[in-house]
Prior knowledge:
Blueprint: E1 4-15, E2 18-30, E3 35-39, H1 46-53, E4 61-66, E5 69-70, H2 76-86, E6 87-90, H3 102-111, H4 116-136, H5 152-163, E7 170-174, H6 182-197, E8 201-206, H7 209-212, E9 217-222, E10 225-226
Parallel strand pairs: 3-8, 3-9, 6-7, 7-8
Antiparallel strand pairs: 1-2, 1-4, 4-5, 9-10
Helix pairs in contact: 3-4, 3-5, 5-6
Amino acid sequence: MPLLEAEAVHRAYRLGRTEVPVLKGASIRVAAGEWVAILGSSGSGKSTLLHPLGGLDRPDAGSVRFRGESINRYSPRRLDRYRNEHVGFVFQFYHLLPELNVLENTVIPAMVGVGRLEWIRRRGEVRERARALLDRFGLSHRVRHRPAELSGGERQRVAIARALMHRPDVLMAAEPTGSLDTKTGEAILGTLAEQHRAGLTIVMVTHDQWIAARADRIVHLADGRVA
C-alpha cells in the first residue's frame, strides 16, 4: 500500500469570471521512504498538486489517500491534525515569522493545537528537541537571531528544522532551493538527502532537472497531468 496517493485529481481556480483548470486528472503514488521529485515547467500544476497531497487544499474531483484512507472525507479539524502530525512543509521563500527568533520559529508546529497547561508541561522537552535539530543543521549559534539576520541558506535550514519538529511521515518541499545560489542550494539538497537516508519520505516539486535527479524517482507533470 502506498503511503500517499492521489488519484485523478482535478483543481481549478477562478480569476475574475474565468475558471482556470490547473490539475486535470493528475495521479501519483508515493511509497514510504521514497524521495519523489515532481518535475514540470512553470504553470504545469506541480505546486498545486502539493496542496491536496498535504491537506492544504481539497481537490474539486478525485481523491487523496494517506495510508489507504481518503483525506477528502476528513473534517476541517482532522485535516488540521493530518497536516500538523503527518506532513512537514518546506517552501521556496521560507515563510518564517519575522518577529520570532530561530528557536521560536522552529517550535511553532509543537504549539499548534496544544492548550496552555499542556504547553507549559512540555515546553522544556520541545525546546530541547528544537535545539537538537538546529544543532544538527549547524545553527546552534543562531537560535536567538531573527530571520532578517540570517542568510538565505540559514533561513531554509530553519524552515527544514521547523518542518521536522513533529517527526512527520512525509516532507513536502516546493522549490526548496529556488531562491538560493547554486552552492547554498546544493547544501540544502544535501540536508534533505541526509534526512532521506534516515528514512524520511520526501515529495519535492521543481522545474530543474539537475535538482530532480537527486530523487529516487522523477514524475513529470505537464498540462495538469502526470506524463
